[in-house]
Design brief:
heterodimer, A: alpha+beta, Cytochrome-c3 Hydrogenase, chain B, four-stranded mixed beta sheet, 18 helices, B: five-stranded mixed beta sheet, 5 strands, globular
Amino acid sequence: MSQKITIEPVTRVEGHGKVTIHLDDNNNVTESRFHIVEFRGFERFVQGRPYWEAPVLVQRLCGICPVSHHLAAAKALDMLVGAGTGDGLTPTGEKMRRLMHYGQIFQSHALHFFHLVSPDLLFGIDADPAIRNVIGVVLEHKDLAVQGVMMRKFGQEIIRATAGKKIHGTGAIPGGINKHLSPEDKEAFLNGPDPLNIDQMLAWSQGVLDFFKDYYSKNKSFIDEFASFPSNHLSLVRKDGALDLYHGVLRAVDSEGNKILNDVDYQDYEQYIEEEVRSWSYMKFPYLKSLGKEKGWYRVGPLARLNTCEFIPSPLAQAEFEQYKALTNGKPNNSCLHFHYARLIELLHSAEMMKELLNDPDLMEGELITKGDKAYKGIGLLEAPRGTLFHHYEINELDQITKANLIVSTTNNNEPMNQSVNSVAHSWMDGKLEITEPMMNAVEVAIRAYDPCLSCATHALGKMPLEVSLYDANNKLIDRKRS
Amino acid sequence: MQILIYGYGNPGRQDDGLGIALVDRLEEWASEKELVGFEFENNYQLNIEDSEAISNKDLVIFADASEEEIDDFCLSVVDGKGKLSFTTHSASPGYIVKLCKELFQKEPHVLLLHIKGYEWEFREGISDRAKENLDKAFVYMKKVLEHPEIALESKEELKTC
């Protein structure tokens, strides 16, 4: 008799995920799926609202990356007010937004690594779960846990200083930003008391990267081979090919590095990307139209970004990037656990960019807003911590939102997460008579590498697609109800 | 004495904003009364850096909406010994207290104010029934803040869950 194993909920992953693994009579894996069982109807929620409310409203999608939604919505609204795309803002407008964004990336990456990933690395994925958690890290590696807390706090303070407040920040407005950086905040971030200053953040960022590289040198085969499979990769890149987390053109490469989406304007994303609906998940499955559903899926996030970009425009991160690229001889890295390596290089890059911006006089003075002619359609993209985030709005003559489409990072990674689960399930569970806790955690380790945010992702359909059909013994439909 | 009143929840999910609404009202009231020694904080949810934020306080009162079977509102002591939960997106009050103790060797007296809510849809505004509970909690918490020993010493007047 075949069996079905259910891992629910997936721990140390936000939201409510469910994994099912189907075994045959020989206990070999026949199918595995990562289900999304939570639902949010956000795209409908914003319809009819004045467009200028969007950057504040969308923050309610998620409490951990409200800044990413705030900025992506603001970028889309820049189009509606005729301010152009990200590079059409005033220097002050764009740089204040960038500082806000790097603060968000910094705190998110630090939180993920120190408090979610480090237990698996420090104790091993087969360690006793009573130890393999963040409290275990606190007890045995207190310095790491404190660094994680303080780095997250620093990023949050950057957000407060640029967005105005921690919740319902209003910093980014259509066409720009609503304030300069205060001299007091600038001084505190640059020269504040230890440890809350940018130089300490840089040192700790380098330190945690060195920690990971040391771990990697001792566990190379595990990091390289765990849930490794070829895939396409997609992200924004700067027009000259540099890593740019705030603005750029859309680029995708295949597993060998060949460009399959060649630096296109993201205002035209609908020409290139489509979303598939599958009956067993509330989260859609995006893919590149040119390659079709079977071959067009792609990864987003830190791993993808370091595969699509050609260089990193900050010296410390660039040096690390060169070492990292040498591991694969310049080819794309397709190893799931290298997400962590890439994420930590981005952590360092974010710290460098924050320092550069904090020393930039444009943040203290200059015009805040760009104005132009009204448009009725606006699309904003940026690279959120977890990957490419799409916000698309259309409005009417009354300035009300008539259409909203959001493709969040976790949705972009839907198929890769399923592929990762499948890979791990085969490696760890084929032929086994007993399903152990470490095997179960191995599945979760694969999912955690993507740092998924199911709260963000499950807004995906405008209406819960619940349909109940009742068939009789002769396979005849006798009733059907839809919610 | 340093006292932190910390509301959390999502105001875009109706009654989930009860904790934040209460703290906003208390902050306004404390400002009018020119009370000192109080700090007011709001956020969507608790997270790890809050362990540092509470570490230099004598008394911390978290305020959150509750789906529990309670009449209107009540207070419980948070000691970090119960069920602890953490994701990247949220941490339980007990987890924050535990982290504070382990990372900063501080143990402030921490209470959680549970305010009964009823509606949790993707809309702004607190339901009429929950507003009644909010009003009651506001009146009660003013008394606690004027006499924090009620909370610190868990006196009989403390409306426990």
